[in-house]
Design brief:
Keywords: Hydrolase, Magnesium, Metal-binding. The chain has about 325 residues and is an alpha+beta fold. Helix content is about 30%, strand content about 20%. α6 (about 220-230) links the parallel β10 and β11. α2 packs across α4 (about 100-110). The longest helix has 22 residues, at about 5-25. The protein is globular and about 55 Å long. Bound molecules: adenosine-3'-5'-diphosphate and magnesium ion (MG) (3 copies). One magnesium ion binds near residues 124 and 273.
Length: about 325
Amino acid sequence: MSADYSRELEFALRAVSHASELCCSVNGKISPDVLEKSDKSPVTIADFGSQALVSRILEEAFPDDPIIGEEDASELKQPDQMNFLNAIHAEMAVLGLHPTSEQIFHWIDRCSQKEYCDRFWTLDPIDGTKGFLRKGQYAISLALIVNGEVTVAAVGCPNLGSTVDDVPESIQGEVFSAIRGQGATARPIASLRNPESIKVSSRTATSEMVLCESVESGHSSHSHSAQVAERLQISADPVRLDSQAKYCVVARGEADIYLRLPTRPGYQEKIWDHAGGVLVVEEAGGTVTDVTGKPLDFRQGSELSNNRGVVVSNGACHDQIIEALKAVGVS
Ligand SMILES: Nc1ncnc2c1ncn2[C@@H]1O[C@H](COP(=O)(O)O)[C@@H](OP(=O)(O)O)[C@H]1O
Ligand SMILES: [Mg+2]
Ligand SMILES: [Mg+2]
Ligand SMILES: [Mg+2]
């Protein structure tokens, strides 16, 4: 008999919904506090707050499960970051939580696991921090990996309305979720009620397809994707979106292709940037591989070190994309 993951999904949804409340509160402010990480990427009080909240809920429900998450609390512990830490306390208080600073550090640092094991969660507390800062798309992405397979996923997209052009005014976005083998659903992130089944598009003619990619050309090569689009005779302009919202729009059939093409040698994709989105797309009937057509390997710790780039599609055109990538010299 296969294992029942309904409890895992229930807590994952609750954790993502709770974290999205904090993210929306911070996102509503004119300009949230931002720190620069050692790799020069931005991190906000919402990234830390979201990671702490999800970690807290998982610790209570599944105390033995390790978590591989994006953030750690080392910056926050610096004496010159007191204002930043106080801002996190203030956001938690809005949600009725009054933890000590030590508790916040503990929750965040519980997600600092790096090693692969048979069962673990991976968390991106805000995927698309740059999108969050420009009040565009971002996602809270949580996934459970069992024996190397993404098994449960909940990807909250607080700024994603019923279409990509329709940005909701308050917390009205959707959370996309899946249990392996049971299909994918979308439901309102605020209520978590009335899940609706989602499916990838049934389009087969590549000339009619919609391709999406990162807003940031530093995260995915826009010039290579334009060459692929030309080969596939795609006429529509690419839709540029931050975060795993791209996986979600492919999963619900609004777009047909999501390309993430390497911009520089040496960058390894991180598991938290993909795990949740991968399961949602696969369970909606789509296909996810790297640029060579290999499945993503989630057994390598925090990085997808056996893969290069990511190709997501409705399935119908996947082989054609892989061929086109070879023809334009990406693989
Ligand atoms: N050179 C690079 N190539 C691919 N992805 C990169 C990258 N540098 C940073 N990223 C990742 O791109 C993610 C955002 O993706 P997107 O462009 O699709 O919104 C970032 O997640 P965070 O925002 O969680 O840090 C970060 O992990
Ligand atoms: Mg990310
Ligand atoms: Mg992030
Ligand atoms: Mg980041």
